[in-house]
Amino acid sequence: MELKEAVWQIKDFTEEAQKRYEEETSVKESVHHSTVDKWFKDLESKGIHHINRATVNNKKIYDELDVTIAIFIMKKRAQKWSLDAIYNVLAANFEVRSFPDLKQGEALKPNNDLVMVEMSHIFEKMQKEFEERMIQELDIKKKELEQQLMNRLPSPKTVLDVRAEKIDNMISSVRKRYEIEGLAIAEWNMLPLERRIKKVGFFRKEEDMLKRDNFIREFVKSYFETEDS
Questions:
Q1: Which end of the chain has the least Cβ crowding within 10 Å, N or C?
Q2: Where does the source fall among the domains of life (predicted)?
Q3: pLDDT for 50-88, tens place per residue?
């Protein structure tokens, strides 16, 4: 009685490949069946390896050759190989399955579903590269803007600058006060004489200095209060 070769559909096939991989490497590797399915879709879309279909329902079925290829891909992925690099060396390591109904020199007719999958992968890659490039450009623009803003800001004052500024303010304040006191004295001198002098004894009169000082003080105070308001 002739024994039929074992075949699997994708979920059982993935479990079988993981079991064989663990037996060969003593490493338990978990791979989702959708990932394995993508590997073999890529191989078909690139014209590298064909997957058999069931006669009844045309579903993909995988055999021992496919198990060997899956284990090979798993090993290379564990070694950090990219998928493109693995696909490129696959045909040199295995007798990959040719595509049916192809005459010598006839080009493989693309499967529309596989073409759409491949185009989707290409688009995703382009979109990712575009987003990364935009992030880099925005980061550069941000740094340039920050530098421009920093250049516009005044340099921080040193201790000597602060001290010199305080001295200048104090000198300006003293000068201003002297100026206002000068105005106050001029106003005082314009007052009638009888308001500015006082009697000293029976025969002598002199300027009332206390009254003069009070007048100047009130004049200066009133000036600064008016200026502040």
A1: N
A2: Bacteria
A3: 999 988 788 899 999 999 999 999 999 999 999 999 999
